[in-house]
Design goal:
Shape: flat
Distance between the termini: 39 Å
Order of helices and strands: HHHHHHH
Number of strands: 0
Radius of gyration: 18 Å
Number of helices: 7
Largest sheet: none
């Protein structure tokens, strides 16, 4: 129930109080490729918004034994972030007696050192953007 309340509060914030909009100069600079005009800290946070879903995808698919399948929520988190994950955490946490739903090849890949190194390299490259200095 707590996750549902947090989810509703986040949706209310995103719809009524969140800054930005159609003429947001930061988003228009990111999408136009003018990355020099953006504070590196803002760019690192924006990039992290794409890296966190990769981490959650890895964690959720390696432990997908719940009542609801985790993959739709993990994939939706790339577009709408915590809005999809909070729904899964609110309603999908009822333990069901079943084996791991994720295919064996995908579970092996997500648990491999190669995938973990790829994630760490992505995070390191994202952190390197902060060496440009920020305000």
């Amino acid at each position: 129930m707590i996750f549902l309340i947090v989810w509703l509060l986040l949706i209310g914030y995103a719809v009524f109080l969140a800054p930005g909009g159609e003429t947001d100069p930061i988003l228009s600079s990111i999408f136009s490729g003018d990355l020099g005009a953006i504070d590196p800290l803002v760019l690192a946070v924006f990039n992290a918004l794409g890296l966190f879903p990769l981490v959650f995808l890895t964690l959720l698919l390696l432990n997908d034994r719940q009542k609801w399948p985790a993959w739709p929520f993990a994939l939706l988190s790339f577009g709408i972030g915590a809005f999809s994950l909070l729904l899964y955490f609110a309603f999908g946490n009822r333990q069901a007696d079943r084996k791991l739903r994720t295919p064996d090849w995908l579970a092996r890949f997500l648990a491999s050192r190669f995938w973990l190194v790829v994630l760490m390299v992505f995070w390191l490259l994202n952190g390197l953007t902060l060496f440009q200095g920020f305000h």
